[in-house]
Amino acid sequence: MRIRRIIAISILMVSSAFLAPDARAASTSPAPEDNLIYDGERIVIRQDGTVSLQVRSLYVATSEGIEVYRARVNEPLKKIGSQKDVSGFAASKSGSEVFAVSARKGDLSVIDTASQRPSRFSSLGKNASALLLSPDERFIYVSDSTEDKIDVLDVGTQEVVRTFRTGSWPFDMAVTSDGHYLWVSNSLDETVQKLNTKDGEEEAIITSVASPRGIVLSKDNSELFVVDSNNGKVIVFKTEGNKVTDTIKVGELPQAIDISRDGRMILVLNRGSGTVSLIDVAEKKVTAQIQVGERPTDVALTPEGDKAYVANELSASVSVLDLQEKKVIEYLPTDVAPKAIAISTPERESKSQT
Question: Which of 21, 61, 142, 334 lies 20 to 30 Å (CA to CA) from residue 312?
């Protein structure tokens, strides 16, 4: 550990020594307080002379702003107070950018993960709620719950290029791995739509879910998992023909859902019971119910699938879950009402772990 400390200090001192005074002032990226660089982290010296530390970052959106943590050690890095009431995140695969949508402002912002500085990306409706990057990261899908629509933004031009009409109150989205189809859950009219991403035309509709909320696709796109909130279960559909194949009982008032990168595990957040249900995708069985905080609202998984971070809205905390031991190993206190959460991993680290 002492060697790592010496190496880290040496790199920072040498890189800083070669910077002009104004370049040193511009280098405002968070530096490690303990002068350590952990596995998967790196110092980047850009052509303009600015220096930044690239780390795996955890972003937690509260009513007071975005709290940024150094996820390897769960230490606070920065608070972005200008970004209030963020309702959704989307992280780029490279780990260089995180997009954030604010329902109150109606703005879509992009955060540079090296400097942790946000900038305005696009102006949207004031009820924009969820967002999703296309697999090729050329487009961002942003749902507007009160206008019953999804805006499609071109990442390159930062402009809305298409608008898809949805059912009443679109809640969640899932896109196929080839990017050709977008599934949308509409919570008020109790439907789940399959839309063609070229023109937004409805290819199929599911009407057999009483209160659809979160949705995820299996890694091969053959199965769709839909949260039925009022009935406390997850319904599994075959995407070919949209027939129900399984029903999985979870906790009370489930809402958010996510799937591990390897596609073997699904996590369901139960707002009513304050628990997380772990589902074995192959067996279609709940393998554990983990007690977290009050009203869990969003979850982010590490690329390795060994840990999950759960935002607890009423507890003002984030629960850190060890998914192998199936238990909470740490609680991170936050500002009021954490609602959205995301992990951004540097490209070098993420490629080495896939």
Answer: 142
277: Cα separation from own chain's centroid: 18
Considering the entire predicted model, what is its pTM? 0.88
Q: Quick one: 92 and 76 in the same domain?
A: yes
Query: Which whole-number Å values give the CA distances from 177 to 137, 221, 265, in the listed order?
Result: 12, 7, 18
For residue 50, pLDDT beyond 90: no
How many Cβ atoms sit within 10 Å of the Cβ of residue 290?
Answer: 23
Q: Do 104 and 46 belong to one domain?
A: no
Helix, strand, coil distribution of the chain in percent, nearest 5: 10, 50, 40
- The full 3-state SS of 18-76, as one line of letters, equals CCCHHHHHHCCCCCCCCCCCCCCCEEEECCCCCEEEECCEEEEEECCEEEEEECCCCEE
On whether both 66 and 29 belong to a single domain, the answer is: no
Residues contacting 128, CB < 8 A, separation 6+: 87, 101, 102, 103, 106, 108, 142, 143, 144, 151
CATH number of the domain enclosing 248:
2.130.10.10
Flag the least confident range among 45-49, 165-169, 332-336: 45-49
Whether residues 121 and 14 fall in one domain: no
Residue 311 pLDDT > 90: yes
Q: In this structure, what are the phi and psi dihedrals at residue 247, rounded to the nearest 5 degrees? A: -130, 130
Instruction: Say which residues have a Cβ less than 8 Å from residue 47's Cβ, sequence separation at least 6.
Output: none
Those residues whose C-beta lies under 8 Å from the C-beta of residue 157, and which sit 6 or more positions away, are none
DSSP-assigned beta bridge partners for residue 259 = 266
Structural domain boundaries enclosing 230: 57-352
